[in-house]
Amino acid sequence: MSATRTKWNNHQRVGIFVDVQNMFYSAKALHHSKIDYSKLLLEIVADRHLIRAIAYVVQKADVDQSAFIEALTRLGYEIKTKELRMRPDGTAKGDWDMGIAIDSIAISSKLDTVVLVSGDGDFAPLVHMLKARGCRVEVVSFRKSTALELVDAATSYTSIEESLLFKERKSVKDENQYD
Questions:
Q1: Is residue 5 part of a domain?
Q2: Which end of the chain has fewer CB atoms surrounding its CB within 10 Å, N or C?
Q3: pTM assigned to the model
């Protein structure tokens, strides 16, 4: 992940909005890996002034995500959570699209740049609105799972590279198989 930045950027006020579910499933499907949210935050902010970084998490009742949420909090992310809802027909509902849109619009007047970490094409109208309000809008995601209309709408697009993923560790058994 790299972008050309000007001297003005170190005065740029940036807000980061992370669609955790979108990123989790993309990292898993494309790379059989997980995102290193510490590296991601450092790369996105670079030499700019971070105003807020919000991670939006959907929780399942049967999955304990407390360690993950605590880790994100220690890294400097604000956490917003909601429970996955099961519908009577057996389908599930659990996304933060409206929450991300409302929050990013609400604080856009305090930001020069909004960074949307998602590949969801439903955010394209939001990107257009934020740009109309005077914000730069950067989209950061996995290119292979990102809607073209979102890339086209953004002021700039950055693809998440493998350097921002946790590498699988070899087990001791694998390393010692020839001993």
A1: no
A2: C
A3: 0.85
Average pLDDT estimate for 12-28: 93
**CA triplet 126, 21, 49: central angle to 5 degrees?**
60
CATH number assigned to the domain comprising residue 137: 3.40.50.1010
HSE value, Cβ hemisphere, 13 Å, CA-based, for 67: 2
Residues forming beta bridges with residue 176, ordered by sequence position: none
Domain count, the chain: 1
Residue 41, pLDDT score: 97
Pairing relation of β-strands 49-59 and 78-83? Answer: parallel
Confidence of residue 143 (pLDDT cuts 50, 70, 90): very high
Would you say residue 2 lies in a domain? no
Structural domain for 127, as ranges: 11-175
Within a domain: 113? yes
Q: Is the pLDDT of residue 98 over 80?
A: yes
